[in-house]
Design brief:
18 helices; nucleotidyltransferase; disordered N terminus; 45% helix; alpha+beta; RNA-directed DNA polymerase
Amino acid sequence: MPKEALPNGDARTDDDNTGDAPVGPRRRVSEMQAKLHRWAAADPGRRFDDLFNLVHDPATLIVAWDRVATNRGAKTAGSDGWTVPRIEAEVGVTRFLDDLRMQIKSGEFRPQPVRERKIPKPGGSGKVRRLGIPTVADRVVQAALKLVLEPIFEADFEPVSYGFRPERRAHDAIAEIHKFGTQGYRWVLDADIEACFDSIDHVALMDRVRGRVKDKRVLRLVKAFLKAGILTELGDYEDTGTGTPQGGILSPLLANIALSVLDEHLHAGWKPDGPMSTSYRRQVRKRKDLPNWRLVRYADDFVVLTDGTDQHLTELREEIAQVLAPLGLRFSATKTRIVHMSQGFDFLGFRIQWKRKRGTNKWYVYTFIADRPFRSVKAKIRALTPRTSQHDLRALLIRINQITRGWTNYFKHAIAQRTFSKLQHYTWWRIVRMMRTRHRWKWKDIRRWLTDHTGRWHPISADGIDLFNPETIPITRYRYRGNQIPNPWVSAA
């Protein structure tokens, strides 16, 4: 990297000006991505060569470092023990990126084994999820690869997938289900792929990557990350013969590349001139007792909705299993099921159900908060507020507010007012019981603490920090965006 490299972060540089000023790293990378996306969209069969120079370009590495350094895991060390703050203090960012660039360019760079960390799966099942924590150097190179590869493959991805894609979110997937459920697609294949991230076949995945990437040096780098191995919590080394370890920056993109074969298969009928491409053609199929279906996928979680029958979904399930088999993937026998929307099903933390509106004979598709995320948020609050806790109340309120604000903002588009009220009631009582035990208060002491001279109750507070009330969050309906979801690279172009 040249010693006169432009500053990182949001600092003002000459690239913010016009004229003959040098182009800064962010703008340069954005323009590069816009060109790659435009070329990929214009020619679906094009295989890109000479991408390696873009991966180790100084601007790409600067932007990649910025994304790694501003991530919450910047202070988490990989298998080599280095963290972002330590590199900044002991090595220096410029020298670190300069050395990393020379290693990549010369072909000497080798990914290190990812450090394994097991975390409990949500729901209290007792099962754990294996996360892989790459080294900081590996994270930067993965981020650089993603900056180059993502705009190319985004040109091929179908609009029915929403997970880990730019400008898309879980609420778009829920809105899609709500829309088609309202239109009569009420039989649902609620699918679960068993250990998806751990089971993806490397050969099949690399074949998908080669469909767009011709540069052997980039392919070699991607494969090296897949084969890097795992350093277990016990200090043992394990080979990674399959899968893309969760936790890596590149893993979600590689998973989407692999699972795009499912999107292409199930969405083919919706393409122009396809048998489900227009409302008239879908009506003709329905009159002939042929089903129409719609896939909605978020990473490895997906549902298939149909306006046909459960038998149609049973046949479609076998067809999907055959599509997934070459990828080394299979359905979870215990979690995959076919249900009618009147029974309800959980997806991305929401409970979606077709039911009768109270006091009428009209039926609608409703979106509620599922039981599991509500139990999960209560468990977090319970862990923070044991009766014997001596934690500072102000720090405790700040942490609880962070949890409840984020949780309520995610679920504010569901029918959630009653659940928010329950959460407020639960949180208030947990803190009150903790304070009663801590200070050996009676109820009259609680009233003295939380009421004013008129007897009116006020929120729990400490040193200017009030307990957040989830009931104050307005419930709003999420606007269905459909094909109007913006593309960042088209805007940049």
